[in-house]
Amino acid sequence: MSRSIVKGFLSIFSGKMLTSVISIVALPFVVRVLGPDGYGDYAFLLSVFSVMMIFFSSGVTEGVQKFAAEERDFEEWRSNVVGFYLKLATGLAALGVVCVVGVTRLGIVERQLGARFDLYFYLLAALVVAAQYRAFARRTLMGFGLEEYSEPLRVVGKILLFGTGLGLGYFFGFGVEGFLLGNILGDAVVAVIGLWIILNRVSIREVVSRTAESVSRNELLTFNVLNIALVLLVMSLYHTDIIMMRMFLGSEETGYYRAALSIAEYIWFVPIALQALLLHSASTLWSNEEYARISSLTTRIIRYTALLAVVMSIGVAVLADRFVPYYYGADFVPMIRPLLFLLPGVVGFALARPIYAVSQGNGDLKPIIVATSGSAALNLVLNYLLIPRFGMIGAATATSIGYGSMLLMHVGCARHLGYYPLKDFRAPRILAAGAIAAPVIYAADWVLASDMAALAVVPVVGFVVYAVASLAVGAVSVEEVLNVLSYFPSPIDNWSQSVQQWRQE
């Protein structure tokens, strides 16, 4: 099966863009339906669920995507891989249900969290099954090169989640349980459709039969174990603070803090898309031992990421006091201070993402696990020490340091693997561009009395000033901008090529 990397990337990017837009539009309604207390409970439950599913799902889904994409000298390779992982996914989902129902029936959930959480955890047990098959179906489709199916299904699931949750909450008074039911419905529909597409492309007889002897179970399971360890470490960075906030401080402050994280993490939109692209592109360079090109590619991508992340973080910091009351409502104003503390770490993590992806392309996960474990341990310890004493600000400070340390850890990992991701980073010039633009952005915000006018005008003014400053100080060159624009669709690419030709004459 041949696959187009460009076509696959565009499908993934489009799906990510659509789901992000849906989330951005729906989130203000979600927080208003649930309120700070209910939203805190919902965020806590999703964090617990995400950490739990690392053990029951991450090795399966990453494994089937990797091995289903490979061409092997074995006619029914893909059917056997799908069958092996489908059986494993089913067994692990059953184990997950038993664990969730067991801790609930034993009264552990009620003693630790309160009686209302019993119902939530029974719904989580159902979500284990739906989410397992949804993730399995989507990752298998990606492994088959069928992103044109996997990504639209992801959008369908997101629409069903928010549509069901908001409908049940607004019209029938459901709270957290309504959104959990929305998750279950969305995942179940995606799973059924995805599995139907998959089973029409493999031998059902081979899927349900015993895995062939020519398929190395040891190879498949070894990858699973290493990947589970890596995903656990990365996901701990996302969820440790949420879980500890709920345990130490309660649901209301957790709701405020999770809202702050949601805003800060919008800065990762472009880095996440680049991460998906680099994982494919870097693999070929690693296989050809083109270390100089790997260093050049990574440095350029990190510099572009830094340029975007810096101006976005300045904009968020300046406009937060105007944006938050409109987006979340006046009740969520307390989230602004932790948001400001989160921004430096979010920028650091944004820069670490491309390095992480390029290192993954090497295929050796052990150095990446070591690097990530350092950040995960630091994040865990700092959250444990700072949350009880400083509350939301402590969580934001700890998480920001943990996020930021990912850049340092993965630069060290990259050097170990043999490439230099910061060779032409131009950090002083990027900081100089930010220092020039920041006062102008702040002044524009101060001059405009109307919130709506500020939200419309300040981002445009800030971006123009920052872009000119970046060119002036040499953080980016005109040639680099034109080269990037040449990859855009017409007429932008034609205009870029015309300007390049004019400059050469």
UniProtKB/TrEMBL annotation:
It is a multi-pass membrane protein. Coiled coil: none annotated. Its main location: membrane. GO terms for cellular component: plasma membrane. Keywords: Cell membrane, Cell shape, Membrane, Peptidoglycan synthesis, Transmembrane, Transmembrane helix. The keyword Repeat does not apply. CDD domains: MATE_Wzx_like. It is found in: Cell membrane. The keyword Cytoplasm does not apply. The chain crosses the membrane at residues 12-31, 43-64, 84-107, 119-135, 155-173, 179-199, 220-239, 259-280, 301-319, 339-356, 368-387, 393-418, 430-449, 455-478. GO terms for biological process: regulation of cell shape. PANTHER family: O-ANTIGEN TRANSPORTER-RELATED, PST FAMILY PREDICTED COLANIC ACID TRANSPORTER. This is Flippase. It comes from Halopelagius longus.
